[in-house]
């Protein structure tokens, strides 16, 4: 099949004609029509309206979780585990003040332990506090991990006996900065051993390790990570029922809000007929909102 392409002289002639008439000449993009059509307009109202009963339940659950945080005061590890769960489940924004105060206390304890040479030898505790505090903007030296090396300068093989601690270590290492060689070494070490032990791990830890190796927490999209972690947390025997329910309801409420937003935007887009007024632009409203 032979295609007739316009010659450079023809293109130049068209452009000159356009300049004479003052018309802006644009190439035809021939984009495919949107696959969504009127989906968000037709299915929008009704099922996405706010539910007062659900919102009341969220308030009750929020109070219960606040009490959990209060009861964890002066129990640093328990407090950090709870904060980590709040952040992973995507509901930390509901408890910003409580989390800020808790991490200030954790940092003060960290500084005090460093001064008195009393930093714990538990890898899980050190790695979790390192990640939570760095995420919050506190300056935490990578030297806290030196104690986990042997006399040859290599990370101790005994660290591979605890997959949960090693995973926590691996997640913390993604907050490293330039010239932190010990963290680069640790990342190689933890990645290698997590991959080797993955086939032998039980759920939900196996799924959590698999997810983290694919997309480390620090590099993931918070809302997608929250959806993924809800399933992991639900299978955890140490889960808090109130926190799990709060995370599910909050996720659904936020999804409903996004759906109402795209329904309103889609209706506005259609009413003013922007797709025909901007033929050189893609009619991809749903993708843009995502």
Automatic annotation (TrEMBL):
Entries under Gene3D superfamilies matching the protein: Farnesyl Diphosphate Synthase, Terpene synthase, N-terminal domain
Pfam families, alphabetized: Terpene_synth
InterPro entries: Isoprenoid_synthase_dom_sf (IPR008949), Terpene_synth_N (IPR001906), Terpene_synth_N_sf (IPR036965), Terpene_synthase-like (IPR050148), Terpenoid_cyclase/PrenylTrfase (IPR008930)
Residue stretches of biased makeup (Polar residues): 1-15
Highest taxon of the lineage: Eukaryota
Region (Disordered): 1-20
Gene Ontology MF, one: terpene synthase activity
Any Gene Ontology biological process: terpenoid biosynthetic process
Domain named Terpene synthase N-terminal: residues: 36-213
Name the record gives this protein: Terpene synthase N-terminal domain-containing protein
Organism: Nyssa sinensis
């Amino acid at each position: 099949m032979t295609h007739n392409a316009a010659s450079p002289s023809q293109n130049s002639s068209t452009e000159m004609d356009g300049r004479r008439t003052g018309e802006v000449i644009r190439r035809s993009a021939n984009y495919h029509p949107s696959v969504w059509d009127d989906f968000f307009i037709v299915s929008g109202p009704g099922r996405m309206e706010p539910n007062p009963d659900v919102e009341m339940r969220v308030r009750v659950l929020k109070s219960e979780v606040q009490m959990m945080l209060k009861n964890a005061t002066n129990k640093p590890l328990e407090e950090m585990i709870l904060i980590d769960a709040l952040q992973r489940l995507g509901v930390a924004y509901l408890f910003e003040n409580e989390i800020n105060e808790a991490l200030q206390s954790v940092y003060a304890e960290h500084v005090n332990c460093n001064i008195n040479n009393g930093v714990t030898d538990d890898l899980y505790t050190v790695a979790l506090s390192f990640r939570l505090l760095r995420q919050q903007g506190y300056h935490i030296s990578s030297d806290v991990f030196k104690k986990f090396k042997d006399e040859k300068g290599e990370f101790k093989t005994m660290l591979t006996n605890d997959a949960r601690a090693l995973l926590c270590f691996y997640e913390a290492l993604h907050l490293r900065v330039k010239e932190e060689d010990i963290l680069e070494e640790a990342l190689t070490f933890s990645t290698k051993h997590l991959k080797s032990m993955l086939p032998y791990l039980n759920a939900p830890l196996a799924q959590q390790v698999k997810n983290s190796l694919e997309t480390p927490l620090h590099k993931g999209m918070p809302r997608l990570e929250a959806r993924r972690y809800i399933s992991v947390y639900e299978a955890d025997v140490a889960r808090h029922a109130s926190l799990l329910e709060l995370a599910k309801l909050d996720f659904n409420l936020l999804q409903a809000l996004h759906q109402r937003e795209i329904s309103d935007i889609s209706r506005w887009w259609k009413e003013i007929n922007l797709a025909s007024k901007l033929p050189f632009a893609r009619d991809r409203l749903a993708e843009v909102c995502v």
